[in-house]
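Key idea: predict the complex, not the pieces.
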Amino acid sequence: MDLFANLAHGFAVAFSPINLLMCLIGALVGTLVGVLPGIGTIATVAMLLPITFGLPPVGALIMLAGIYYGAQYGGSTTSILVNIPGEATSVVTALDGHQMAKQGRAGPALAIAAIGSFFAGCVATVLIAVLGAPLTKLALAFGPAEYFSLMVLGLIFAVVLAKGSVLKAIAMIVFGLLLSMVGSDIETGASRMAFNIPELADGLGFATVAMGVFGFAEIIRNLDHGAEMSRDLVQQKITGLMPTRKDLIDSAPAIGRGTVLGSILGILPGGGAVIASFAAYTLEKKLAKNPSRFGRGAIEGVAAPESANNAAAQTSFIPLLTLGIPPNAVMALMVGAMTIHGIVPGPQVMQKQPDLVWGMIASMWIGNLMLIIINLPLVGIWVRLLRVPYRLMFPSIVIFCAIGIYSVNNAPVDVILAGVFGLVGYWLIKHDFEPAPLLLGMVLGPLMEENLRRALLISRGDWSVFLSRPLSAVLLAIAAGLLVLAVLPSLRAKRDEVFTESEG
Amino acid sequence: MMPIRSFAGACLAALASLCAVAPAAAQKYPTRNITMIVPFAAGGPTDVISRIVTGHMAPTLGQSIIIENVVGAGGTTGATRAARAANDGYTLITGHMGTHAASAPLYPKLAYHPEKDFEPVALLAGTPILILARKDFPPKDLKEFVAYVKANAEKVNAAHAGIGSVSHVSCELLNSILGIKPVGVPFNGTGPAMNALVAGQVDYMCDQIVNAVPQINAGTIKAYAVATPERNPSLPNVPTTTEAGLPEFQAQAWNAIFAPKGTSPAIIATLNAAAVKALDDENVKKRLLELGSVIPAPANRTPEALAALVKSEIAKWTPVLKPAT
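Result:
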């Protein structure tokens, strides 16, 4: 069998001491980047890429890949502990993960995130090896019309996952879409809503808004008099570091479903991984016997999206390895890393560079193993961080966030904007608006707009293109179905009763 | 004595008392690390070319050259910073066709002028532009392509990697030569645009050779012609536009080193000599050729030749891009 020979060859490459070391460094740096709020994978890979100039190409790419999927592990940590999603893909993890932490179950939440990620990583690695080439067709089958419909579906997920009023959730999505329109118009290059501030010409950064509405707003809220009491409770209630048998049984199906969703959606260029995490969460909530647990610390609400985003992070390598086409910004940097080393990625990269391709695939499995070995013992240390008094913790979070936001573009304006979004976020929390739909709207907004315009440019303004293409029509039908479920008055009455926030 | 005094005056204005030691300082340049601004992301064609060449220049100059990637606004953010940097020879920029020619008509409010705010140092490499199409696009060669897009001007779609990108401006040039206005479909970068071409969602595209060679060799897209006077060694079967009957279409994405205006001629000469030496190195040549780049002929490596290139390129792109904005 070719496959086994190839995999064996890959493992032989990946197990060389230098490549093992590179894999470990990548996994460690990735975990760190994921944990530190604000410093994203794109910025890190961009910063480290020049360093790889002097490294052997296989080792360099193994390290950069390690940073990418390592950050998916680390990203869940800040989401769970302090409710700050470092990456767009861990926004939904914060919903139930932070609630678990508040109930003293940060340990199980962190552990299940690591276990789910490991399982998803293993499955996705095998999937890349076995089905990489045929799955490429999926990436090619998605044209602008299909993307637009997928984005519509993604936004409907945001409505469904909202805890409170549907109207408020829709308002938040629209607000997020509006924020995403700041910057240059893709077709004409005209500046929109940038108010002549040069830093806004390239749009608002995800980190800026996420740190503001999640991180800073959460801190301001915690500084409220009332919140201090519940905070003390969090510190004392910590029960057990590892998930119980029941937790594992509850999470197992969620991990499986999250892995499948993530593996499929990850192949799609663009927002695949983000949609995967939201889709996995939505699916769990819809399948659950008692959906009211979600948003209040359901362990499935952590297990599913974390499995999905890690699976997606890995399958997003498929278009790069089989077609030589980078599906997202981090992969574009990986292409850059290959180019620096004189390897031009393309459809023949698998035949011409078997060391590189199979070495990388094998290293992903090794990297995932390293990550779970690194992360599980760390759970205890992270949980202990929760005991740090607020007077020390708050300033540190603010400083780390500020450094992270500044480092993305070296722009002081971004830090000020994050502060403004902090105040906006505080106002939103106080009025029971949830920030998660806002962020999803913001992340998916540009993809939705660009693909809508591309699809209409190609069809010469004929809107029927969204229904005449079968994949697109199916996606829109699912979206419509979900929306009906979410807003049907009879269902809504029941929904409001189940979903109303209990806290005052 | 005069040139040296004016150098001292320009770059050591605050240290006028040091005029006496200026000759020594000028001979010793460089005495510390040099920053090379690359106005694009690490790993892009400009970045890679800059790293390959400066990697060889650094030992020649006896100082490290630190690459700083300053991205944003089609490369003009980095170019603006370089234009405003001290003209002491310690801040340089690797610019390209976009930042130092096409940007002038594209961005009416540009904070610098490619000619007035920079001293040309040396041309490093040219990257040929190809005319590409999806693999099942009906025309078989460039002649048929020209006839087809003219006859079907209302139907064809041209992909590009965003306003101001090489793929955008070079296709605008092609379209203006052909006298057609196809629907331009913008993508975020070359990767997604190439993906759409491979998937057959768009009809044609003009792009740099480095991105396209593997796809052409695999048969996932086809190339009609290369817009340079000579065929490219990495694609020996692809004819030039001259051979294929469209000699007016000549386009290369070139990369070159510039220094801020007012940098002394002595420093420019030192840097130019180091760059020329790098271009003669076998290893540098090999790496650049692997990228599909064309290495400039010795006559085209002088600062004067680069100044002339910038002038002619601005003249070439201005009429093409002015109406587009």
